[in-house]
Amino acid sequence: MKISHTILALSFALGIPAAAQTPVDSGLAAVIAQIRAIDNHAHPLLPPHAGGPADSDYDALPLVAIPPFPLPIGLTSDNPRYALARRALYGDSSKRAQVMVQQGDGWPTWALDQMGTDIMLANRVAVGPGLLPPRFRWVAFVDPLLFPLNTALERQATPDVRSLYPHEARLLVRYLAALHVKTVPPTLDRYLSTVVSPTLDRMKREGAVAIKYEVAYLRGLDFGNPSRSAAAAVYARYAEGGTPTRAEYKTLEDFLFREIDRQAGLRGLVVHIHSADIAGGFYNVTGSQPLLLESVFNDSTLRGTKFVLLHGGWPHTRQTLSMLGKPNVYADFSMMDQMLSPAVLAGVLREWLGEYPDKVLFGTDAFADHNEDPVGWVETGWVAAKTARQALAIALTGMMNDGELSRDRAVAIARMVLRTNAATLYGFPTE
């Protein structure tokens, strides 16, 4: 096996500073650099138009709404990789706006080409010009469907959720309006038949390939399995007024979570679940552990539904590894490739790929700090894409060196992670 330490070749293949290199197989790195990737998770923004409103649909729960909190250094402007991204993308930061204007509605597609990405899954409330198929595929938010009742007591849990629950309430009103429904119906059965099912149908009809939960920002992922009658009793008690206790609301939420997931599976919609220890000063880290979802993944009535643990459950990545043994569970490493060094991410990937290489998905979590910076998601996406390819090359080179796999198998796994696993999961072209 030929291992090259040629700094120039490696820098070209991975598009990163030569000084940051860990020796990898140069041929493998060159192959990885050329794979047209499918990004499992991102928050791209619409191309801005002069005089038009700022894009507010890039996330259902914009974290600018919560009190300030410390970020890992890799997600701050102090990360030198962002300066590298700006130079690579624009040559000069002052040219960011110029490039965006030149590209017009084609600017998001131009951005994907700079990242080496073929298809990006856009997590948004709604999509629009510039973010449409075939290069962009929609992932719709379904958290509002969990909260049809008054959330006054839920909002009191922490200062973070106090500002987030109103966003869910407004979005539920928007979903109801799309169905020409003014208020939630008086019974759970009617809520399911006139709101939940039609909303999922609308999302599917409008192009969604998956649904997304950000619920870990609001409560733990410890979803129980209450009876339909217990959930119906809570719903009926408060549908027309009053405020459920937190225990009562949890019963309803737990039932709705599983019911929504069952219905998603019947429609061929993959279920994405945020699972990582960020962000917010009051974020419930314990409540976002992947193992809390085991009873959901073991539910025989949900085996027809495919789940993806977003962000790999960081830092509980070995819990994620254990969940990958479930036949319908996958994981991506979005955001990890922004936040972690290539070497640290490579260690996680090596553990995952050593056991379940067909369950691991590339993702960036490309995002902007706020809706007034429509360019920022391009830079974060570029950094994540470059880091991911470098980490993948490091992990696979180590596995080759240790005799765990051949070069041909390493190339095949690289293609699986960057493209074919996602293509198979969503029914996209594999080439």
Task: Describe the protein's topology.
Layout: H1 7-14, H2 26-34, E1 37-42, H3 80-90, H4 96-103, H5 107-115, E2 117-123, E3 136-141, H6 159-178, H7 188-205, E4 208-213, H8 228-238, H9 246-266, E5 270-274, H10 294-297, E6 307-310, H11 317-323, E7 329-332, H12 336-339, H13 342-353, E8 360-361, H14 376-401, H15 407-426
Parallel strand pairs: 1-2, 2-3, 3-4, 4-5, 5-6, 6-7, 7-8
Characterization of this structure:
This protein has 15 helices and eight strands. The protein has a single domain, classed as TIM Barrel (Alpha-Beta Barrel). Helix content is 44%, strand content 9%. Strand 5, helix 10 and strand 6 form a beta-alpha-beta unit. By secondary structure, it is of the alpha/beta class. Strands 1-2-3-4-5-6-7-8 form an eight-stranded parallel beta sheet, sandwiched between helices.
Residue stretches low in confidence (pLDDT < 50, at least 5 long) are 1-21
The helical percent reads: 40-55%
Number of spatially distinct domains:
1
Count of alpha/pi helices: 15
What's the CATH H-level superfamily name? Metal-dependent hydrolases
Which descriptors would you attach to this protein?
single chain; 431 residues; alpha/beta; TIM Barrel; eight-stranded parallel β-sheet; 15 helices; disordered N terminus
